[in-house]
């Protein structure tokens, strides 16, 4: 089994990312308070759904007065939007490229990176999916995030042997279709677990390996080992 290089893997959990940033940046009291509120919200979302999230719980978790929340955010959706936007901006700055000596190992590396981001932030991913179906602002944000990830894959695929033989529209359609498949698969594996899927993918590495093989077969019409 081929695994991605983890020696210099960046942190993928939002809560840990902003904790590291708080240490590195010289923040004033107001900035630290806002950051504590965001960290508290992200932590709560790991165990509760958005509709069950209460401002009083966020304030208590952040160790601030209830009214302090409204100094920084008008409502729950505002802080969620800020968290998701901030998280993916940081990832865009720190995301390492896929590594590997052959095309399958590079696909495996990229898939492992994506699975790592997803599983480190299950609450945020669940919240983004739910709110994108209810709110136009979140729908636009999700589309922007998805597009950024897909365009990375399109740019890479365009440089491969299979990519140079395809037109850009076909490459884009294939990447979007396979990307949507991966997102839905992760949802039924982690968010709303299907026992059949869980049985076939016992670990996160197993998930990444098997999804990478599906990608490779779809692109090259053969198994990686052939």
In short, what is this structure?
70% of the residues lie in helices and 0% in strands. By secondary structure, it is mostly helical. 25% of the residues are buried.
Describe the structure.
The chain is built from eleven helices and no strands. It is mainly α. Helix content is 70%, strand content 0%. Helix 2 packs across helix 5, helix 6 crosses helix 11 and helix 7 packs across helix 8.
Q: Any guess at the CATH architecture of the largest domain?
A: Orthogonal Bundle
Distance between the termini: 14 Å
Report the major sheet.
none
CATH class of the largest domain: Mainly Alpha
Structural class: mainly alpha
Detail the topology: elements first, then pairings.
Elements: H1 14-24, H2 29-45, H3 55-62, H4 69-72, H5 76-94, H6 103-120, H7 122-132, H8 136-158, H9 168-191, H10 195-200, H11 204-220
Keywords for this entry:
0% strand, disordered N terminus, 2 domains, mainly alpha, Arc Repressor Mutant, subunit A
């Amino acid at each position: 089994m081929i695994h991605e290089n983890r020696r210099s893997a960046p942190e993928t959990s939002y809560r840990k990312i902003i904790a590291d940033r708080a240490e590195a940046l010289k923040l004033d009291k107001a900035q630290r308070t806002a950051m504590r509120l965001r960290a508290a919200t992200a932590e709560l979302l790991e165990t509760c759904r958005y509709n069950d999230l209460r401002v009083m719980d966020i304030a208590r978790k952040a160790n601030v007065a209830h009214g302090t929340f409204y100094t920084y955010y008008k409502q729950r959706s505002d802080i969620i939007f800020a968290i998701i936007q901030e998280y993916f901006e940081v990832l865009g700055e720190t995301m390492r490229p896929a590594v590997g000596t052959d095309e399958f190992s590079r696909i495996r590396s990229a898939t492992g990176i994506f699975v790592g981001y997803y599983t480190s932030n299950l609450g945020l991913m669940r919240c983004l999916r739910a709110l994108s179906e209810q709110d136009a602002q979140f729908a636009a944000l999700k589309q922007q995030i998805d597009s950024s990830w897909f365009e990375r894959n399109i740019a890479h695929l365009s440089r491969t042997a299979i990519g140079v033989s395809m037109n850009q529209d076909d490459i884009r359609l294939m990447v979007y279709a396979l990307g949507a498949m991966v997102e839905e698969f992760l949802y039924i594996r982690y968010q709303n677990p299907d026992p059949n899927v869980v049985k076939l993918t016992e670990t996160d590495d197993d998930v990444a390996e098997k999804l990478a093989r599906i990608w490779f077969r779809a692109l090259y019409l053969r198994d990686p080992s052939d």
